Amino acid sequence: MNLKPLKMPSYGGQALIEGVLMRSKVNLAAAMRSPDNKVVIKTERLQGIYQDKLFQLPFIRGLIVLWDSLVLGMKYITISANLQSKEDEKIEGTSLYATVIFSIFLAIGIFFLLPMLIANFLSGLIEISSIESNITEGLIRLLFMVFYLWAISSIKDINRIFSYHGAEHKTINAYEDNAELNIGSVMKYPVEHPRCGTSFLLILVVLSIVVFSLLGDIPIVIKLLSRILLIPILAMFSYEIIRWMGNHLDHPLVRLLSKPNLLLQKLTTREPTADMVEVAIMALKSLQKLEK
Prior knowledge:
Layout: E1 12-16, E2 19-23, E3 27-33, E4 39-45, H1 62-84, H2 93-125, H3 130-152, H4 156-176, H5 183-186, H6 197-214, H7 220-229, H8 231-247, H9 252-268, H10 274-291
Antiparallel strand pairs: 1-2, 2-3, 3-4
Helix pairs in contact: 1-2, 1-8, 2-3, 2-7, 3-6, 4-10, 6-8, 6-9
């Protein structure tokens, strides 16, 4: 597969429920297949922080990725879920915002605070140093993430989302290889992609092991606050690492360092069907029309 030309616009995406979201720096397009087999297209021009020059600076731009993961992504997953639901089952208005906020706090609690509490409890049972306790916390966090991804992959509906994730990656891979955007061509490409959000999460977790280990022995309340307040900082550095690795995949060492990222994506991607790839292509082509 050829490396992406520098002048080619960089697109990213996300799997939805029976759909795919594609976005650039200024536009977004989501294609979703409804229960009657029609493909519904929703588009949006990204405003606010997306156009603020401050958030386009190195490191600061990583906050956009965090925002996408926690807010924008959840918004469109909810929209795609509503498309599959009956009128009285849809989540809208206050319920939608409450669901997004609850999901954010739940994720922070499970993947950042709970590992810290478990490690703190273990350090009370076993005489270990503060650095060893913090490293243990990081390893527990990593195990939580891997186990979570493995566990949800056994759910049928989640498996379909992971297949749409594979369709999104195949389509982006084909686009970056200057291939024809048709089902036959796109299906030949791999389901892994070096700039995947899964890779971003892995880098963030590994980076948290290093950073939190350096904090040493601090009071439990300050330790809890640090796990929450440092998430944006970790996201900023994680994005820059992923971005740098994505731009240097021609180097053997970078390809080697990318192996764990691509390996983890085996948990979050599945080989898609032709109709899933069709939806992903429609999302990308709709985005390209907006770009013009």
